[in-house]
């Protein structure tokens, strides 16, 4: 059962060993009723396969899209989602929380 | 992150040692600090604080936004005594994501029929710990529930020596006074003995085995999350 964030890091490692390009997303800051705690991880490969969660489902789609770009470009990014931001509102943190997510490539 | 860094992080985790990954968010540079290296690290104070809380978080270091990814080992719960309370506890423990082992040398109690799906070891605790059961460490909770000093005491001694984050023992205050005397006799300091939660469990007026199981697990969660221990009345 891939229930804990450390299991997700083990999966990230195993994906790399299989030769897949991998990005790691980490929740670095939350405000309000963000559904996943700081330190939560999501691992993504270049095809958009993913494990883990950074928001309980609300913004995973956007994070995965950005993560695929990070895999291509190489430089890490910080993403912000929340009700204060129109785009993010569309992405849908309907719970009223805001989160910042660090996305990095595994080199 | 460098794949080697992730490999080390995962290896440390497999060895049940904590690590903190320090990430400079501006440029993505990282370094991994092992639990044993924290004391000598330039960031010892802030790293120590995060290690104690077990929580990852954002800090500002020299004007730079820095993220600390705190990895602490998965928490194990070792229950000594394959009793009613342990039976009630097993499904609750699964929901809490704790790794449960039940030890009881009495094979009539430690039967798979009574504990379906539970890791059960029908041996004396001092024989089991360090062989069939991995040795206790700081990321273990130990609950001694047999009421029998011959079984409970060796487990409590091992738990105190290993500095388990939680050590609890079933029994009345009178039973515990006798236990305290035995442990003092065996060379344990008052500070060590005082770490034992007895009577076991948060004071919720628990009566049934399931209620006692709940009180014990609530107390374990409070210890894990570093909620200050209530004053003993």
UniProtKB/TrEMBL annotation, chain A:
UniProt xrefs under InterPro entries: MoCofactor_Util/Proc (IPR052698), XdhC_CoxI (IPR003777)
Protein name: Predicted sulfurylase small subunit, molybdopterin cytosine dinucleotide biosynthesis
Domain XdhC- CoxI positions: 15-82
Annotated source species: Methylobacterium pseudosasicola
Superkingdom: Bacteria
TrEMBL record, chain B:
A Pfam family annotated for this UniProt entry: XdhC_C
Alphabetical list of Gene3D superfamilies matching this protein: NAD(P)-binding Rossmann-like Domain
UniProt xrefs under InterPro entries: MoCofactor_Util/Proc, XdhC_Rossmann_dom
XdhC Rossmann domain residues: 77-220
N-terminal signal peptide: none
Domain of life: Bacteria
Coiled-coil parts of chain: none
Stated name of the protein: Xanthine dehydrogenase accessory factor
Organism in which the protein naturally occurs: Methylobacterium pseudosasicola
Classification lineage: Bacteria, Pseudomonadati, Pseudomonadota, Alphaproteobacteria, Hyphomicrobiales
């Amino acid at each position: 059962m891939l229930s804990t964030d450390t299991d997700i890091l083990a999966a990230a490692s195993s994906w790399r060993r299989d030769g897949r390009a991998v990005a790691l997303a980490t929740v670095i800051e939350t405000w309000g009723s963000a559904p996943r705690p700081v330190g939560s991880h999501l691992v993504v490969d270049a095809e958009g396969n993913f494990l883990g969660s950074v928001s309980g489902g609300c913004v995973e789609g956007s994070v995965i899209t950005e993560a695929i770009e990070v895999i291509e470009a190489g430089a890490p990014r910080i993403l912000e989602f929340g009700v204060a931001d129109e785009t993010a509102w569309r992405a849908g943190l309907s719970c009223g929380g805001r989160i910042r997510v660090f996305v990095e490539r595994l080199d | 992150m460098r794949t080697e860094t992730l490999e080390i992080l995962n290896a440390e985790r497999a060895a049940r040692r904590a690590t903190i990954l320090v990430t400079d968010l501006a440029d993505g540079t990282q370094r991994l600090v092992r639990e044993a290296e924290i004391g000598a690290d330039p960031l010892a104070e802030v790293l120590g604080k995060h290690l104690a809380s077990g929580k990852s978080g954002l800090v500002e270091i020299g004007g730079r936004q820095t993220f600390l990814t705190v990895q602490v080992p998965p928490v194990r719960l070792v229950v000594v005594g394959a009793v009613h309370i342990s039976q009630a506890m097993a499904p609750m423990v699964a929901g809490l994501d704790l790794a449960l082992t039940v030890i009881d040398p009495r094979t009539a109690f430690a039967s798979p029929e009574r504990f379906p799906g539970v890791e059960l070891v029908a041996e004396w605790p001092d024989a089991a710990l360090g062989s069939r059961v991995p040795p206790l460490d700081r990321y273990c909770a130990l609950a001694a529930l047999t009421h029998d000093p011959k079984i409970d005491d060796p487990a409590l001694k091992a738990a105190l020596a290993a500095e388990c984050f939680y050590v609890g023992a079933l029994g009345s205050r009178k039973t515990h006074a006798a236990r305290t005397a035995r442990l003092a006799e065996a060379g344990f300091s008052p500070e060590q003995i005082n770490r034992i939660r007895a009577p076991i469990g948060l004071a919720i007026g628990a009566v049934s085995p399931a209620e006692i199981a709940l009180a014990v697990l609530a107390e374990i969660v409070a210890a894990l999350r570093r909620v200050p221990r209530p004053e003993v009345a």
